[in-house]
Amino acid sequence: MHIPTALVRANNSVGGSSIWIAVFISLVLMVCPLAYIYYRRQWNRREMQMDDHTAALLKRISEFENSQKVMQQQAEFQQKIIAAIVHGIKSPLKYLTLTGKQLYNMSEGENTLRDVLRSMYTSSHHMYTFTDNLLQYVKLYLQDHKPVLNSFNLYELVQEKVLMFTDIAISKGDVIHNKVPATLMIYTDRQLLSIVVHNLLDNAVKYTSHGTIILSAFAVEKRIHVAVQDTGIGMDEAIFSRPAGFNSMEPGLGLVITRQLLSMINGRIEIKSSPEVGTTVILIFEE
What we know:
- By secondary structure, the chain is an alpha+beta fold.
- The chain has a domain at about 145-285: Heat Shock Protein 90 (2-Layer Sandwich).
- It has six helices and seven strands.
- The protein has helices at about 5-105, 110-140, 155-170, 190-205, 235-240, 255-265; strands at about 150-155, 175-180, 185-190, 210-220, 225-230, 265-275, 280-285.
- A hairpin with a 3-residue loop joins strand 6 (about 265-275) and strand 7.
- The radius of gyration is 39 Å and the shape is elongated.
- About 25% of the residues are buried.
- Its EC number is 2.7.13.3.
- It catalyses: ATP + protein L-histidine = ADP + protein N-phospho-L-histidine.
- GO terms for molecular function: phosphoprotein phosphatase activity; phosphorelay sensor kinase activity.
């Protein structure tokens, strides 16, 4: 029987295609398991690496937490030590201040003795107020104090400070005027602002003799300005031009504390001073 040549060629072509398909399928069946094994191993390796990274991260977190606990314990210990030291200094200083004041008031007519007692009284008073300010600042710093904002009468706060410094000012021949408007309200942290005003008034009294100290305040373009002006010896520009982060026990430490406290309540400070003319310190707060 004769088979057409075309049909034979077609059958051969189909047979060849079937072989190639079979070979392809066989290769796929061989490669897929190998590829699966390869990628599975890669995945397992990555999982192991992730586990190692996670374990290392957890270890670091644990070490950090332990370090934080140690630092917290050290901070608490330092706070107790500093508080004990400052309290230990405050008590004799307060007694010395009161004794100096009594002796000064009793020494009428004895000029030389009166001058000595006045120096003792003023020096002990300034040491006491500085120590008290430092204690308040240390407490706020170590306790990570967050400002408590509220509205209060600024005149009343200033008047509290004026009364505290009236006796020491009189002993130096100074006069303190509170010219803050009686109804002016301010919105900030009262405790922090109280420390700032106390510190500025203390400096004004310290460096002014037989002069005038004026505390005033006014509102300009939604800002409240609080000014402390004196007719004292003035301030060295090197002191008030120091950066806010300056860390030193040299004169000017009170100014550093003042700047840091102001930064906590969104306030800023401007200082104008001339030797033998006086100093004007202006605190500026956004309403």
